[in-house]
Amino acid sequence: MNSSWRKILATVLFFLIFLDLTSAKKKKREEDTSSIPTETSAVKIALPEKKEFDYFSDIDAPTLENVIHGSPESLRSAISALKRSRENMSESEQVLHYVAVSIMQICWKSQNFIENTTGENFKNGYTGAVSSSKNGIYDPFSEPKDFLAYALPCLVLASSETRSDYFDEAEAALKSALNLNKSSVFANYLLGILYRRKEDFKSSNEYFGYASDLEPNCFECSYAFAESFMSISEYSSAFSLSERLLQNFPQNKNLLKLCAESSFASGDMTNAELYVSRVLQLEPENSYYLLFRARILVKKGEYIRAASLLDAYARKDSSSRDYLVLRFEVQKNWNKNISAATTTIENALVLYPEDTEIVLEAANLASESGSKIAGRSGEELAEQILEKNPDNFQALQIKINSMVLSQKWTEAYKSSTELLKKESLPNSALFTHIKICLNSNHKAEAWQYASKLYAQNPTDEEVLQSYIDVLVSTGRNQEALRLINQLIPTSAAKMKSFLYYEKSFLSSGEAAILADLRSSLTANPRNRDSLFRLYRIYYNKKEYRKAQYYLKQVVALSPNDESLLKLNTELDNLLRN
Questions:
Q1: Each residue's pLDDT tens digit, 28-76
Q2: 44, 211, 253, 341 — which has fewest CB within 10 A?
Q3: What pLDDT score does 463 carry?
């Protein structure tokens, strides 16, 4: 009995112990499970901030930031800091030293920076990008992860100009770099270069401006910013910035040249000549600036000095495109030697047959003189330009002027009417259209334009001439005579000559008409209209000797005008008979 009881008791105890152990395990499982965060109960654990520059993580932040900033001053600071431990430089320090030196030497050449570096001996993406850039190759990282990985391959923009097939990729890389650090001087500068080479000059100006603002003392940034205004036709801004920069770099030839070019482009001939002279003091054999000075003198109307410089230049090169253009202008406008000017522009056409300016100059001369240049009329030469550029305003005007000279009034009216549909037309186009209207039976239209111009600017001489011409041609004689008599006493010689010429159409009797025409020639002996009218008067009276006297003077003013030469030949024949 005792033995059985012991067995039962042992079994009960074992069972109780088993239940207790099972309960304990379950409780522990529940406790462990309750410590696992659920979607609603999870608590975010603060992780260490991920470092952007894993490769350069052992380098102190200010030094790394100085390299990224990339200005001459910050690069010098970084290079100096890295050199302090030259004997014990780590691999990453040597690589960063090489990167900093390379940025300085590639981007900021005016620093003339020389520094020995060993970083290039370590072969990785950073050194590879820099070395490739120096060799004119764009070599991007496969997976760029930091600022320098994006920016360093783009150093090729400042070291080489031979290729352009990487521009889109480089643009994206530089923008990614600037998203990481928008205050990088060298990255903004490189993006300015990229846009300049893509001919997006507005964006180029913008990024050069950023770089210049970030580092005002960096010559390359400030110079590029000043120069970029030339490409967007803001010449005054280019001049003011370059002149200000010149205060710190008074002997810099590129700055002097930029001052000369920008002042010339903005119409400031005084400063243009001043700066060209300073360039020639530093480079007396610089033929481009010798010719540039001649161009300024021509613009100023100082033809004698300009001719002297052109003579000096011709001893070196008489076939230069710019030389021929300037020589032509001097012969045409100063010497009044149309034959010589014709020969010069014909030589230019042979050497530069597709040059727009030369073709236009030839077309203009042909149109004005009524002659043919290289066998072509002004209208034909203008058509050469219009075939490639139908909207070329100068060519359109020359074509119309040639029609006027040939008295093709119907065609001239049609072309001139089309031209007037363009915006921002100069008054010269309106004056020509008024003349065409008067000769093509559109006098009401001529009056509409002339009266409007006169109401807007009643003191302008060209406006007055056009207005008086219309008054006379449309029979508004009393108003015309009143205005002419009012203006004659105070007018300059050329204007006075015009007024007497117009007055001759309002005078009664031959004696009064002849008196007005002679007064016109007294004021301006080269008034072609007055000379030609006197020729006509005497020709109609069959006083051929007197007619010839005046016609020869007209021919002398336009020696290549075929219509005048024909009239002169006819008159010679009459005098022989």
A1: 444 444 443 443 333 333 433 344 448 999 899 999 999 999 999 999 9
A2: 44
A3: 96
| DSSP-derived 3-state class of residue 373 | strand
CA distances (Å), 176 to each of 68, 448, 477, in order? 13, 60, 75
Q: CA triplet 192, 195, 197: central angle to 5 degrees?
A: 110
CA distances from 530 to 48, 338, 498 (A): 95, 21, 8
Assessment of whether the complete model's pTM goes beyond 0.85: no
Angle, helix 393-405 to helix 378-388, in steps of 10 degrees: 150
Which residue shows structure tokens 């204007």? 495
Locate tokens 């894993």: which residue? 54
Q: What is the DSSP letter of 46?
A: P
Q: Looking at the predicted structure, is the pLDDT value of residue 2 above 90?
A: no
List the structure tokens of 572. Answer: 């010679």
Residue from 206, 72, 216, 69 nearest 148 by CA: 69
Instruction: Please write the tens of the pLDDT for every residue from 471-482.
Output: 999 999 999 999
First to last CA, the chain: 181
Percent composition of the chain: helix, strand, coil (DSSP 3-state, to 5): 75, 0, 25
**Exposed/middle/buried for residue 215 (C-beta within 10 Å: 0-12, 13-18, 19+):** buried
CA of residue 87 relative to chain centroid, distance: 52
Q: Are 366 and 399 in contact (CB under 8 A)?
A: no
